[in-house]
Design a protein that fits this description.
By secondary structure, the chain is mainly α. It has a single domain, classed as NusB-like (N-utilizing Substance Protein B Homolog, Chain A). The chain contains seven helices and no strands. It has helices at about 5-20, 25-30, 40-50, 50-60, 75-90, 95-110, 115-130. Helix 1 crosses helix 5 (about 75-90) and helix 5 (about 75-90) packs antiparallel against helix 6 (about 95-110). It starts with a helix and ends with a helix.
Length: about 130
């Protein structure tokens, strides 16, 4: 499975977990729709779930005039995936690739403003991480 597909399926699984408190394994199985599992997909979903408090704290610190719970579910979970990749896959995936992928996925699954919003928040998040 391509990483782009893994990211999209991770977004779908995390959306399901966020909305209905589905167990991560069940959410992953549901989005795979009978296909073979994927290590990157699994690591994204489980990693975001395990590191959610830290990720949410980082995202919240880079939101202006917004709170995390007011964000659209798609945007919130897309930010979580990208933040997780930027925090924990720094040596494996270039930050600009993470940003570009998140923006492109936002254009597909988000609303008209999602891609601009995601770009703005992730650009700030990138600066925050690089200043640590």
């Amino acid at each position: 499975m391509k990483r782009r597909t893994a990211r999209e399926k991770a977004l779908q699984a995390l959306f399901q977990i966020d909305i209905s408190n589905t167990e991560p394994a069940a959410a992953i199985e549901h989005v795979l729709e009978g296909e073979a599992g994927d290590d990157y997909l699994t690591s994204l979903v489980l990693g975001v779930v395990e590191q959610k408090a830290e990720i949410d704290r980082l995202i919240s610190g880079n939101l202006e005039k917004w709170s995390l719970d007011r964000l659209a579910t798609v945007d919130r979970n897309l930010l979580r995936i990208a933040a997780y990749e930027m925090m924990f896959f720094r040596n494996e995936v270039p930050e600009n690739v993470v940003l570009d992928e998140a923006i492109e996925i936002a254009k597909i699954y988000g609303d008209d403003q999602s891609s601009k919003f995601i770009n703005g928040v992730l650009s700030k998040l990138k600066q925050t991480l690089n200043n640590d």
